[in-house]
């Protein structure tokens, strides 16, 4: 899986670079095609409190906080931002104080110095949490995709302060995958902005979402904007064994959610279940049938319900 996943992530990074270079030269589409998704993002951002913490190198990590109650920290995926959770934050914030960062090198946050590693990124998240939720405060932690890897590494260092850890579409366990066989659409020279967005829509359908209809204008907007602003070089982290090595050191209760049509998993869902069950007795492992990798966007009600139930379980192993 390491080589296949790394090749796919490398392609996505190159797509982001190409999009940033070409965007300034593209003919503009009318505002009627852009304003609705932008308004949705702006409205949710306006309802949250924006705070910053410092990261290695002197930059700032931007966090958004919404709601009251026991703290729940949500970490986004690769080439993403806090908006990976845009369809989950409102419901979860009715029960929890939800904290969602743009991790360093993503979204509005400053980048870390190179080399970029999972450990350095997790350390910046842990340091931010020490500022926002000073020890000995405890909290729950959930990560989507690449964010699951960073959440696991951070949880391994934060010890019993992390009460429960939920990984969603997690990689970083050096397991098999068919994702490298997927053929992704490419941005070609001279494409209009509208045509480029359709490339992203096609790739969302192939890589991230189980139902083609889920690749709506909001999903495309988030993908384009997140790719444009991603500067962290995730490299081979998603296909590595970084999370696998962290698992034995995690003291939090572990649970997992996967989409039944996750392209990063393919035929190998049981390998994820078995690997995680080896470190968590009685593992709560749930599959949202029909949903793809970005299951928290595609099936928010099912994921929110699962999270609420998982976070009601007794903390710790």
Brief account:
This protein has 317 residues and is an alpha/beta fold. The protein is 39% helix and 15% strand. Helix 2 packs across helix 7 and helix 6 packs across helix 7.
Question: Topology, please?
Answer:
Layout: H1 2-23, H2 35-46, E1 49-54, E2 60-66, E3 71-75, H3 89-92, E4 97-102, H4 118-132, E5 139-144, H5 146-158, E6 162-168, H6 193-208, H7 217-229, H8 242-246, E7 253-259, H9 269-277, E8 284-288, H10 295-298, H11 300-310
Parallel strand pairs: 3-4, 3-5, 5-6, 6-7, 7-8
Antiparallel strand pairs: 1-2, 2-4
Helix pairs in contact: 1-7, 2-7, 4-5, 6-7
Q: State the name of the first-level CATH class.
A: Alpha Beta
Low-confidence stretches: 1-5, 17-33
Would you count the extended β strands for me? Answer: 8
Overall 3D form: globular
| Proportion of beta-strand residues | 15-25%
Q: Which fold name is given in CATH as the topology?
A: Rossmann fold
Structural class category: alpha/beta
Going by CATH, what is the homologous superfamily? Alpha/Beta hydrolase fold, catalytic domain
Mean pLDDT comes to: 91
Rounded to the nearest angstrom, the distance between the terminal CA atoms is 29 Å
Instruction: Calculate Rg over CA atoms.
Output: 18 Å
Order of helices and strands: HHEEEHEHEHEHHHEHEHH
Major sheet, described briefly?
8 strands, mixed
What is the total number of structural domains?
1
